[in-house]
Amino acid sequence: MPTTDTRRLNPFMLLGILLGALVLIVVLVRSFTREDVEVRAAAVTRQNLVKSVPTNGKVEPINNFAARAEAPGIIESIDVKVGQKVKPGSLLLRMDGSDALARLATANASLRTAQANLHDLQQGGSQDERIALQGDLGRSRIQQQEAAKDVAALKQLQQKGAASASEVASAEQRLQTAESSLQNVQMRSTQRYSAPDRARAEAQLADARAGVAAAQKGYANVNVRSPLAGTVYSIPVARYDFVQAGEDLMDVADLNKIQIRAYFDEPEIGNLAVGQAVQILWEGKPDRVWHGHVSRVPTTVIAYGTRSVGECIIAVDDAKEDLLPNTNVTVTVTTQQRFNVLSIPREALHTEGSARDFVYRVVHNKLVVTPVQVGVVNLTRVEITGGLTDKDTVALGATNSNRDLSNGLAVKVVE
Predict the structure, then answer these.
(1) Helix or strand run (H / E) with residue 35
(2) What is the C-alpha to C-alpha distance for residues 144 and 175, in angstroms, rounded to an integer?
(3) Where do transmembrane segments lie in this chain (predicted)?
């Protein structure tokens, strides 16, 4: 009987074959039985996109009259009430005018004294001084004339041998003294005051006139009147109050012309521009919305509490005396607008590094990584300028927060 050489399989090789077959079976079973990942998705649509920046601000009048006390005093009467409309020239309040009247009288007295001093200087002295000077001048002339006669007479006697040379010399000495005295008196009458003396007198007169003008203004301000038409919106004082110079007495403004001083954080300043539309809200009237525009953009950055902000002026376009001064409001500036552009929800956009934006398109129930170009981005949506069409659908995220999206992932879109 013939013999056959039979080879036995290596046990390790047999075990590897069995394990490989088992893995293949498991993969095939899972490929036919696994469930698709459920994801939320959104269609790429055309919409109008608005990017806005909200912040806080304070209302203030554009044309405002803040009445302040010109000098310390007592309020004698208040002639208007808060909320009252006034015309230019309307009397607002009266101050006690006794102190102002006394200051005016003192200033007028100083002015008259300065005027008299300058007049005397220009005339060469006061009337008494001029009379005394004329007397001195007359006496000096008589003395000079008499001394001259004595000299002439003694010289004639000397020629006849009746007078000595010493007597003539003595008479000539007296003549020189008289002439010198006459010259001094004449100089006093014509050159008594110097140029600096006149300049000092003129300066004193100018100062006195300024003092009178200030006193007259202070007296005129005893009756405080409104220089503009508007509404009285603040009276921080009461009748018989004593107020210091510079203290606030009353505020009047045209409440149809107001503005808002708003403060924007430093990163947002570059997005602001003059003319941008603004929406204004006030908690005091939650059912009312005001509108305005940016009239002045920030010119510098300042510290505002713990924030670094830029100060922006916003003109209110539809105020009707219903937005009160000094109220705190919320303003929202529209910095960018796009009309009828492709957009997607913001959560659908992914960023890889600092340069690449992409989305996961849903194609035949699988995810496909698609690079996109973006435009305006607001809080909820993103403008798509390239990479998608209005026929595409993008994944927002898996319903199971533990599952990450990836390219080629089989998915099931759920509502």
Answers:
(1) none
(2) 6
(3) 12-32
Q: Are 333 and 294 in contact (CB under 8 A)?
A: yes
The 10s digit of each residue's pLDDT in 91-101 is 999 988 777 77
* Residue in the block written with tokens 């009047």: 252
Q: How many angstroms separate the CA atoms of 50 and 383, rounded?
A: 10
CB neighbourhood size of 169 (10 A)? 11
What pLDDT score was predicted for residue 205? 86
Predicted local distance difference test score (pLDDT) of residue 33? 46
Q: Tokens 């004639």 map to which residue?
A: 156
Beta pairing, strands 37-43 & 411-414? parallel
- The answer to whether the CB of 369 falls within 8 A of the CB of 379 is no
String of DSSP letters for 214-262: HHHHHHHTTEEE-SS-EEEEE----TT-EE-TT-EEEEEE-TTSEEEEE
Which tokens hold the place of 145?
């004339």
The backbone region for 364, taken as left when phi is positive above 0, alpha when psi lies in -120 to 50, beta otherwise, is left
pLDDT at 280: 96
The third-level CATH classification (topology) of the domain covering 66-95+222-252 is OB fold (Dihydrolipoamide Acetyltransferase, E2P) (2.40.50)
Nearest CA among 232, 265, 407 for reference residue 333 = 265
Low-confidence ranges of the chain (pLDDT < 50): 1-6, 33
C-alpha 156: how far from chain center: 96
pLDDT at 153: 79
Q: What is the pLDDT of residue 5?
A: 45
Q: Which fold has domain 37-47+339-414?
A: 2.40.420
Kindly give the pairing relationship between strand 223-225 and strand 373-377. Answer: unpaired
Beta strands in 30-90 (DSSP E): 37-43, 45-61, 64-68, 73-78, 85-86
Reduced to 3 states (helix: H, G, I; strand: E, B; else coil), residue 100 is: helix
Q: Which residues, 6 or more positions from 224, have their beta carbon under 8 angstroms from its beta carbon?
A: 67, 91, 92, 93, 94, 95, 249, 250
Q: Which residue has the tokens 């796009």?
A: 338
Burial class (CB in 10 A: 0-12, 13-18, 19+), 407: exposed
* 139-181 pLDDT per residue, tens: 878 888 887 887 787 778 778 777 788 877 887 888 788 778 7
Query: How many secondary structure helices (H) and strands (E) does the chain include?
Result: 5, 23
52-62+254-338: CATH topology is Elongation Factor Tu (Ef-tu); domain 3 (2.40.30)
